[in-house]
Amino acid sequence: DDDDDVDSIISKIPPNANSQKRILYIQQKYKNLAFVKMPKTEKVPDVFDSIKRQSLVDVYNGLIYAKSKDSVPFVNGFTPLHASVCIGNPVILEFVLLQLPDYLNKLDDRGWSPLSYAAYYQQMPVVAFLLESGADPDSSPSNSHPWLIAKARGNSEIELLIKSFSKDAQKHQEEGNDQNDQKLQTNEFQLPESPP
Length: 196
Description:
- This protein is mainly α.
- The chain has helices at 6-11, 19-31, 47-53, 56-68, 80-87, 90-99, 114-120, 124-132, 146-153, 156-165, 169-185.
- α4 (56-68) runs parallel beside α6 (90-99), α7 (114-120) packs antiparallel against α8 (124-132) and α7 (114-120) packs parallel to α9 (146-153).
- The longest helix has 17 residues, at 169-185.
């Protein structure tokens, strides 16, 4: 009975099934996403393209399918959460964060966190949402610290909000304020290319 495949487990869950079978079913369905199958006639939506087009249904299908296969896409460390922050659609952002909570403080290959992008694009609601969701501004290195980015972009409202969540804002200011201000003002900070 332990070797039952997913389809046979589904067909064997009668209303009076024992708790072990019910627990196995729930784990497979909701934790392991074992029952996620794209119809054979449909192509799996590209997650980055779906985010760019702001198609929640396609983001949902693409992410759920990718997670079921342990293949969440990245472009130079740039994740679907980074892309959602750049687009700024609150529904898509919240959905992606619910699906990828471990990516909240993930740095891309250039050391930018999702919060760094939100500060760069000066999206106050996105910054507030990320911080309230547990984003740690101090997880970014000094050259991409969201507080410094907001400061250099001249957005005092975002700067103050991030600073209120940062234990190391003063340290980051002392480490690289002049250098980072100059880079940001001359657009020398290199953002990753837009996702495909």
